[in-house]
Amino acid sequence: VHAKTATIDSAWSTVGTANMDRLSMVGNFEVNVEVYDQAMACQMEDIFSKDASNTHELTLEEWHQRSLLEKLAEAILLPLRPLL
Fold first, then answer.
1. What is the reported pLDDT for 83?
2. How many CA atoms lie within 13 A of 53 on its CB side?
3. What gap in Å lies between CA 21 and CA 81, rounded to an integer?
4. pLDDT tens digit string along 11-67?
5. How far is Cα 35 from Cα 12, in angstroms, rounded to an integer?
6. Which residues pair with 35 in a beta bridge?
7. Measured distance CA(42)–CA(50) in Å, rounded
8. What are the DSSP calls for 23-81, one per residue?
9. CB 41 within 8 A of CB 10
10. β-pairing, 32-36 with 12-16?
11. In this model, does residue 73 exceed pLDDT 90?
12. 22 CB contacts (<8 Å, ≥6 apart)?
C-alpha cells in the first residue's frame, strides 16, 4: 500500500490511499485520515521536505535512454492504463 499525503495552510493534513481517478471513485475501497492540527501539519511538511531532498529529477534525455526492456514493458502494459 502506498499513501498519498497533503498539508494545506500548515494546519490541515490528509493521509490515505484515495486517488483522484475514475476507478478509485467508483470501484475501489479507499480511505483517508483527515487531521486539523498545526503540529501534525508541521511534521508532515518536514517529512515531505526530507523526502524531496532525496530525489533525482529525471530529464527528458534520461527518459529517452531507458532500456529496451523498460520500453517493451511500457508498451505491453499501455492497454491497462484506463484500469490503473
1. 74
2. 6
3. 11
4. 999 999 888 777 777 878 888 999 999 999 999 999 999 999 999 999 999 999 999
5. 6
6. 13
7. 12
8. HHHHT----EEEEE-HHHHHHHHHHHHHHHTT--PPPHHHHHT--HHHHHHHHHHGGGG
9. yes
10. antiparallel
11. yes
12. 82
| Torsion angles phi and psi, residue 7, rounded to 5 | -130, 145
Contact 36, 12 (CB under 8 A): yes
For residue 7, the tally of other CB atoms under 10 A from its CB is: 20
CB–CB of 34/12 below 8 Å?
A: yes
| 1: pLDDT strictly greater than 70 | no
Q: What is the pLDDT of residue 44?
A: 95
Helix H or strand E encompassing 13: strand 12-16
